Amino acid sequence: MTPPENPENRGGARLVTVPEDRAGQRLDNFLLGQLKGTPRSLVYKIVRSGQVRVNGGRVKVDRRLEGGDEVRIPPVRTGEPGATATPPRAYMDALQAAVVFEDDRLLALDKPSGVASHGGSGISFGAIETLRAARPGQTLELVHRLDRDTSGLLIVAKKRSALVELQALLREEHGIAKRYLALLTGRMPDGTMTVDAPLHVGLRQGGERHVQVNAAGKPSVSHFRVIERMGGHSYGEVRIETGRTHQIRAHARHIGHPVAGDDKYGDPEVNKRLREKAGLRRLFLHSSTLEFELDGGRTPYLLNAPLPAELTAVLDRLAGGR
């Protein structure tokens, strides 16, 4: 009887030395670059199971690497459960068509609602995996993330130098100016309402992330301003100084005006009425503007993505029912 094959012998694991220009990169993103076409869910699986080691030790997926680190990468077969060849061609074409800006070092995608920024948690491929599949041979790295249900601007770096500079700007208080458009339930007061409340990410049963205001959380600042009131609700803009998980959604709930269509932090009855009255079938939150400067302030960028047609139609229906 032939003994079962040892996974270590399937082509063998390999040791990769982290280049100096990759210092600071998260382990999961480094592995995605080494294992082209492998979905993030599978990368997470091999890290959690201890098959990936850094300098001989077990690590977590969010480990920040240093230049000179030795990463043990196991053999990964594309036929393993969870692995996927390529996204459907129509999906790749749709995301390619959603690129609203591109130069030699970055591109900006107007991400549709319902598309994850990256694969994982049962999603074989998100925006970044799909773009990589559509552009084989190009180096593409996510600069930041958007919630799956949030639409709008998502920046992808085409060069390592751009990724490093953009992520450094994200860590600065006013490095990247971010403006969102949102419909908040209820009538908010005039003027700008600033919410300075720390946010803590917790896990519910089943591993679902849930964010709430908690003194033990990370500092988080959002500014809400009403543009127009209609149908008893408040359409406005939100500017954020920090980029925490579910920040706008959690802060909006905290002030008593959840984002319309939010099935995690919102009011189910209000969402139902908005669905029936105005046809709102998604989260009404859109990343509309990003403004920043590269090259130490010498190269300004102002990126815009208009409010999607399905959200504009919701506003029209609400305005018509005043």
TrEMBL record:
Main enzyme class: isomerase
Function: Responsible for synthesis of pseudouridine from uracil at positions 955, 2504 and 2580 in 23S ribosomal RNA.
Keyword RNA-binding: yes
Reactions catalysed, as given in the entry: uridine(955/2504/2580) in 23S rRNA = pseudouridine(955/2504/2580) in 23S rRNA; a uridine in RNA = a pseudouridine in RNA
The organism's place on the tree of life at top rank: Bacteria
Active site: D147
GO term, biological process aspect, one: enzyme-directed rRNA pseudouridine synthesis
Pfam families cross-referenced by the UniProt entry: PseudoU_synth_2, S4
Signal sequence extent: none
Biological source species: Lysobacter defluvii IMMIB APB-9 = DSM 18482
Statement: the UniProt record of this protein carries the keyword rRNA processing: yes
Domain RNA-binding S4, residue spans: 25-84
Protein name: Pseudouridine synthase
EC number from the UniProt entry: 5.4.99.-
InterPro entries xref list: PsdUridine_synth_cat_dom_sf, PsdUridine_synth_RluA-like_CS, PsdUridine_synth_RluC/D, PsdUridine_synth_RsuA/RluA, RluA_PseudoU_synthase, S4_RNA-bd, S4_RNA-bd_sf
Similarity section: Belongs to the pseudouridine synthase RluA family.
Record PROSITE patterns: PSI_RLU, S4
